[in-house]
Structures are given as C-alpha cells and as structure tokens.
Fold this sequence. Notes:
128 residues; mainly alpha
Amino acid sequence: MSAATETxxxxxxxxxxxxxxxxxxxxxxxxxxxxLLRRPATWVLLGLWPAxxxxxxxxxxxVSYRRGSSYEGSPPEALLASTLPDRLVxxxxxxxPLFGGALLLTLGALLxxxxxxxGTLKTLLAPL
Length: 128
C-alpha cells in the first residue's frame, strides 16, 4: 500500500474523538476538584466558616451576658440560656447560610480571579 492510499484505523480499545470528549467529563471534574483542594484559600475559608459561626453564636452572646446587657428587652439569663450546649445545634444551623454564602462567594471570586490571572480562561474560551 502506498502512503496516499493507506487509511489509518483507530487501534482497538482506543476511544474515538466523540467518546473521548464525552467520557472525559468525569476526569475534568475530578481534576478541578483536586485543584480546588490544593489551594490554600479553600482551606482558609473552610476553617473560617465554623470559626465565625462559633464566635457569633456563642462567644458574642456570652460576652454580652457577662457585661449585663440584654437583647431586645429579654433578661440576661435568657441570653445565657441561648449559648448553652443544648442550643448549640440550633445556633450552628441557623447561622450556616449567613456565613456560608458570603464565604463561598469569596471563594468563587478567588478561584475565578486566579483562573483569569493565569490565562486559563482565555485558553478555555478561545475555541468559542
């Protein structure tokens, strides 16, 4: 066979271009998650989330109780009762959306900004 008439067939077991693009979505997602886990900003923000939650649900009300201030006209003992361990789960769950939304928005801005700074977005969006 001459080089002009020779047709190359894909090797058995080698994915076609169509299969390779559709099958690599899982690989892309896992690579992005691995990249996300290796960034220090992710861990700082994930550590900041419970720290803020504990400060605003336990520490600040306790300090207010110790100073003798009241909250919305309730006695200081009610403020102390809201910081005790039996209310820990309720206090923690009530503040998660407040702090979590802001911190995840910050994480998204950091991630998108770093992708833009490294030129990754230009590479991704160039074929479009």
